[in-house]
Each structure stands twice: as structure tokens, then as C-alpha cells.
Amino acid sequence: MERVNKGDERVLNVRNGGPKFGRVRLLRFHLCLLPFAVCLLLFSPSPARAHVGSPDVFFEGNAGPYPLFVTLRLPLVIPGVAEIEIRTQSSDLREVRIVPLRLAGAGSQYAPAPDVAVRSKQAPKFFTGSLWLMEGGALQVRVMVAGARGHGELAVPVPSVAQRVLRMQPPLGVLLLGMLALLAAGAISIAGAGAREATLEPGAKPAECGLRRGRVAMTIAAALVLALIVLGGSWWNAEAARYARNVYKPPLVHATLEPGGRLLLRGEPGHLGTRFGLGSETRLDDLIPDHNHLMHLFLVRVPGMDAFWHLHPDQIEPGVFVERLPSMPPGRYRIFADIVHGSGFPETQVGEVTLPATAGAAMTGDDCSWTGPPLPARATTDTDSRISMLPDGGRMVWQRPVGALKAKVAESFQFIVEDAEGKPVQDMEPYMGMAGHAEFIGADFAVFAHVHPSGSVSMAALDIAQSELPGASGDDSSSSPMSGMPGMSASTASHLDASVSFPYGFPRPGVYRIFVEIKRAGRVETGVFDARVE
Description:
With about 525 residues, the chain is an alpha+beta fold. The protein has four domains: about 15-45 and about 165-245, no CATH class; about 55-160, Immunoglobulins (Immunoglobulin-like, Sandwich); about 250-370, Immunoglobulin-like (Sandwich); about 375-480 and about 490-534, Immunoglobulin-like (Sandwich). About 20% of the residues lie in helices and about 35% in strands. It has four helices and 27 strands. The radius of gyration is 31 Å and the shape is elongated. Mean pLDDT is about 85; it is low at about 1-50, about 275-280 and about 475-490.
């Protein structure tokens, strides 16, 4: 488009259609932006319910010769960004790289280029990074390290799900509303000006017929703009509703007490949806053993958590389990049932059941129980506990850090088992292949986390992840989950120290009860501790 050589250079050559074509382009530009503003404005549905347990992942293991403590802060939405924290005790670690990929299958063998974690200037043994999780389901984060002692690699299983629909922040909503009003007014005024003045010579005033055309054009434009807003809003609400249907919700389990103290458990498929590749995890006929059991059943009496059972029902058909209850006091019990799908995706089924007093048989195998005082209804300075007495006169001592416990802070929870004389015991044995198990339960039962000495990951998923590491083989003991657990390996599994630790971080403030299960001389014992978290 040529410009006038003399005079006002801001005037476009009318013979080339300057004023008319310029307004049309501007109108098209505003109309293109309008749907995006509408979509952003209307994206404000209420948040959905998150899954049971802690949303973050904690793992402690060895990457070759380097012990690592890995914390993954998972995103609330998928796709989303996961924040990764890595702590090491090794001073000779030079580089840490991280990459997300599928837990198993072809997607686990062809990893994209890894990102380099950033070393903290204040704490040289602390690294941070962030990764995009683009799909849901059973994923893993590979951590590859290099240092003076060579290279190492470990895999951390990650259950990736959309946890909620985020609300729009009010200031952003007000800003977008103003932009929408501006764009709508601009589109309508441009349409009116185009119909009224597009064919006029510069400086000429429109006639009455031109003014009339302008008003008609503005009326039509206003109707079109309103229709675009309504249609855009309907489209966006439909998309938001479809996303909300794929937000993860904990699967339910229905419990029925049959004659003879037989508890029948019938689970429902988890509400995972198919938008992010999660359809395969909704089945109940693909469960795999975790610690040699298809289900870990936890019964906790409410409201005081003064009675606790960890049982292992038998599956009689896909998704249906049965447990012959031991002797139990009457009451209303919350149900948490841990299962793992064949893909390595873990779930906790939730439910509730009211039971009468049950005179069942004595517990055997890996089953265990605890009864004691209820959790305080209100948090006080006496809520925290450090010592839990054991049935044989011994005790379990929590090596609690000095100061208040903080939410969203990862740390190692260490417990020491002592005999009646206050000396460390010498008869600790593996409990289901581990040095111990722990359950962190919030006072409102909104948080339930089953944690192991290696972290909050499922051991079945960890076994899959480690078997996919380069160089791993089915007969290689280094690929066993036990070998990556701090303080325990396949060669030392029969000889355990009197202490056990669990990497974890409380997801939010509140009052918690911690159940710690260990095995001594063939019997399972449970220590119980209460904690206030700020």
C-alpha cells in the first residue's frame, strides 16, 4: 500500500481502499480476540475433591552410590508442572538431571531429553527442578546423577491425575471482564463506522442515509457479538464440565457384614476418565500384589481413631474381597483399602461401615491391630506425643525434630524400638518385606497416607519402575525395591536395626495420628503417635 508523498502522511491512499480495508482488518482482529477473552472469563468452576492421601510423592533411595531424598510436588491439573526437590548427603555429586516418562512399556524406554536440576547456592546438596506432566496414569520421574564416584539412576513412580478444577482469581476476572467490554464495544463501533463512513472522502460528513446504515450495522454487530459471547460461554462451560468429569475422585468400597463375622467388600472402579489416557486404570480385574497382598484393608474407628486394624482380605472375584473379622469392639469405622493396578497405578478405596461387637478368631500372618485412647478433639500443647508403649513392656520412641512441625515440609520420621529396660531391641524382623509400615491419618480423615521406609510410593509400582531402568533384569537383585530402601537390602533383610524411618511431609496443617507397625520375634506391634502441624 503506497503512502501520499506530500501533506499528511497519516492518510492512506483512498484509491487503494485504505480507510475501508484498514477498518475491516481491525474489525477482524477484534473479533478474533473476542472468543479468547470470553473463554478465559468463563473458566471459573468450583474446585473438585482431591484424592485420598497426600498429593505429593516422597521417595528415599539410592541412585548408584548416591543416596537421595526426592520430593515431587504434583500439579493440581493435567497438563501441569511438577516441582521436584532432591536432597543428597553426598558432597561429590556434580550434576542431577530429571525426566518424566511412562512407568512401563515403550514410553518408558524412549525418554525425552532430560532437564538439569538447579543446585542451591545456599545449600550445595539441595537441587530443584520442574517438569511438565502432559498425561495422566502411571508415570515415573527418572533421576540421573553424576559425580566423582560415577553415574547413578533411580526411578520414582508417580500417579498422575487431575486433582481439581482451578478457580479464576477475582482480579484476573475483573481485568478480563473489562477487556471483554472494551473488545465488544470496539467491534460494534467499528462495524457502525465502517457502514457509515467507509466510502466517504476524508473530512466529509455522512448523510442521513449513512447514519441510518451505521445504526443498522451497529445493531446487527451487537447481536452478533452477543451471540458470540453466549456461544463461546456455552462451549467453554462444556469443555470445563468435560474436564471436571476427568478430575480424580477416590473410588468407593461398599462393605457388608455377613453372618459369622464375614465382611464382604465390593469396590467400584475409580473415576479416572479417559481424557488423559487413564481409561485402563478403571478396571478391577487387573490388580497385582503389593507386599504379597492384593488389598491392604485399614479399619479406623471414628471419630477418635481409638481402634485400628490392618487386615488383608482375600479376593473371591474381580473387585470383590472377603475378610473374616477378628475380635473387634462395636462402632463406626472408616475404610481405607489400598490396591495396585497392573499398570502400577495405586488407589485407595474409601468407605464406611458400622459394626457390632465381633468375637472373631485371633489374628494371624501380617494382620495387626491397636486400641487405645482417642485422638484429642482439639489441638493443645499436650497433643504431640513422643513415646508409645508396646504390649511387652517395651516402647517405641519418636525421634521428633525440635520445633513445630510444618506443613509441606519433607522430612524423615525416625522411630526407635526399645525393650523394657530402655535398650534398643535385637529381635526386629522384616514386616511384609520392609523394616516397617506407617499410616498418617488426619483428624478429619481427609488425609490418609500409607508410607514405607522408601517413601509414599507403592512397592509394586516401584518394582515395575526399577525393572525398567537401563541394565535392570528380572534376576538382578539390585532392581528389587528392597535393595533401594535405606538401611535394608536383600542381603541384610534378616538382620534389622532397632530403628525405622519414613520419608514424608504433611500436606496441610491440622492434627494427625501416626500408626507405626513393626515386627519383632514373629509378632506385629503398633506404635501410635499424635502430632500438631502448623
